[in-house]
Design brief:
61 residues; 16% helix; alpha+beta; 2 strands
């Protein structure tokens, strides 16, 4: 898992309006913390940039 700089994390969360960018559910009132995931995985050449990150409500197991 790639470490996300705090400034990048805040930027993605603000852009997403604190909602999952796939289904639109709000983080407010959720028990689990949302994740910031790569759109294109690092192993497939994806970079750790704001354009390649989404806030997601999907939980990692």
């Amino acid at each position: 898992m790639t470490k996300i700089p705090a400034t990048l994390r805040r930027l993605v969360i603000q852009r997403a309006n604190n909602r999952c960018e796939y289904c639109g559910i709000s983080q407010v009132g959720q028990v689990a913390t949302f994740h910031i995931d790569h759109i294109i995985p690092v192993v497939a050449g994806g970079e750790t940039t704001a354009d390649n990150r989404k806030e997601t409500g999907f939980l990692r197991k």
